[in-house]
Amino acid sequence: MRKVSHEWQKYLQKGFIDKKYWNDFKENAQAASVELKEVKNYEDAMPIIEDIIAGAEASRLAAVGGGESEELSRIYKNLGQKYQVYTDKFEIARNAPSVDIGISTAEFGVGETGSICVDNYSYEARVATMLPPINIVFMNKNNVVDTMTDAFEILEQVFDKGYTGFVTGPSRTSDIERVLTLGVHGPSRLILFAVDGME
């Protein structure tokens, strides 16, 4: 899968990430309606994901990032035994209108805002994160920076061309009679798995 950078971790470790920013990130992410799940590993996420799928009566998933993570690839393979899981970019593109849940990864979180930074250079990553009504994202729990200023300093180092984004909770708008509505222009649910032992 094409990415803006395959070396995010190298730049994050240059004094930007610290566990002490986690509590701010958690508080601000939950205030932005992120459904936060703290898990020790990918395996612990599996039953939670199956509950989400069952609760949403979902059957079709677009799943990206498995090529960079053996554990995530295993999750997709296991889900594929019960559900239709699209991991190929052409399959994702063809089936985008009927996908119920998108699964992807985030590079890091921002304590100040509760936002997550996503490397969405590839078309399939953009589809998986923006079109389905439910967006499930995996992030290394240790990858949290303090401020948006820090986040942009990291982007300055890794970015050459492509597309990255900051996601702060599910899609929301209040332009219809000033009533806050979730999911009008994108996913109505953002479920973030913060993984302790993530690669």
TrEMBL record:
It comes from Pectinatus haikarae. InterPro entries: FTHF_cligase-like_sf (IPR024185), LUD_dom (IPR003741), NagB/RpiA_transferase-like (IPR037171). Residues 24-192 form the LUD domain. This is L-lactate dehydrogenase complex protein LldG. SUPFAM superfamilies: NagB/RpiA/CoA transferase-like. PANTHER family: LACTATE UTILIZATION PROTEIN C (PTHR43682:SF1). It holds the Pfam family LUD_dom.
